[in-house]
Amino acid sequence: MKHLSNFHYLVFLFCAELIFSTRSQATHSAGVEVSYTHLSGSMYKLKVTFFRDCSGIAILFPVTVNAHSDTCGIDVDYVMNPVAGTGNEISHSCPTSQTRCTGGNNPGYQKWEFEIDVSLAQCSDWTFTFSSCCRDGCTTVLPGTQMTVQAHLDNSTYDNSSPQFLNDPEFMICSMQDFHFNHGAQDPDGDSLVYHFIDAIGATYVFPYSGQYPFESVPPATFDSITGDFLAHPTSLACGVIAFEVLEFRNGQLIGSVIREINVYTVACSNTIPTESGMNGTTQQVVYVLPDDTVCFDIFSTDPDFGDTLTMSWDQSIPAATFTTAGSPLPTGIFCWTPGMNDVRSQPYMFTSSIMDNNCPTMGINIYSFFIYVTLDSSLVFIDDSEPSSNSDLSIYPNPSDGIFETSTAEKIFEIKIFDQFGKCILSTKEEKVDLTSFVSGLYIAEVTTAGNRTLRKFILKK
Questions:
Q1: Phi and psi at residue 295, in whole multiples of 5°?
Q2: Do the beta carbons of residue 446 and residue 428 sit within 8 Å?
Q3: Which terminus of the chain is less hemmed in, N or C, by CB atoms within 10 Å?
Q4: Each residue of 305-337: pLDDT tens digit?
């Protein structure tokens, strides 16, 4: 952010809280989650991810997780040591800005991870609980309480791994601006996920705040129950406790859940946070594709702040797909994937794309989600490729062709990019005639840019 107006005032209030609160020796908990991964047989890996506010005390370890099952009559504490190389700073500060993690004055946060391999009996009601004292100064809940999170597991019928968060949380967001964020929850087993706010465990909220209303926002902050998109437009300067749970269903049965809790500061910003479009410049974030077919789309970035240079990236959660970026200072992301028959399933494949500016001292960021359903139901797929195009009169002919293709449209063509089936851009031209005689037979994607439109068309080279 170009600067945080009233920032020093907020720092003063925060420091005063540290000095005069009875919990002044332990305020370092900014966020936490506990998860689990099935290894083999009865073996599971338990994991605690702890986010430390560098304004507080140093983290204390080892940490302890309690595993409890009423049906199996088990209650045991597991002592967990930090993962090698953990404790790295995750703050989005520019290179010339030092945070409190490195001796500076700007807010800073570290990510600590703890793991242990354990043997778990088959029980329908495992609860894994982790607590840390204490919350780091949010005024929407009463002070002095521990930050507590849980994960649940029913492994009486299935072996199961919990959802895993691929995106680190954001702890500072701009007041009077839209905030769009996705935590990137991915399920290793392809189970169905449902998101919802919860009251933070053990927290007493100050009226009118609650788990459903963590801070002032117009409209109120929401979690999309299906996509996991978190949307807010803060209208005041405050700190809110956000706790949410991700429920995991398999064949209609609830088999697990995880909770992530974070403290979020809403601050005054002069920087405008960059944004991304949906697929091909629309608001669309869902697409259906047949196996052995290719889906490609563009994601456009915007930033009204003159002089900002943006960086776009993705979470790499679909290993066989490609995600490339082109252009500066406002890059375009190009996603392409050719799923196979083994990728057909009822649940979508999801990835997230982040857009970040280079503002100092803190970079602005938003994160967006995109969903691809691989299906055998051709009625769900736009076979003629007219969607999500915004230029319906564009045609490429002959199709198939032995190498020479022509494009036809009433609009002036500014650029044609050709992608192979692996998402690699193999040709860029301004000519209406495309010569692919030197390339091998196969499926190709043309991205045609006209005045204000980008249109995708599939075509086949057949020698």
A1: -115, 130
A2: no
A3: C
A4: 989 999 999 999 999 999 999 999 999 999 999
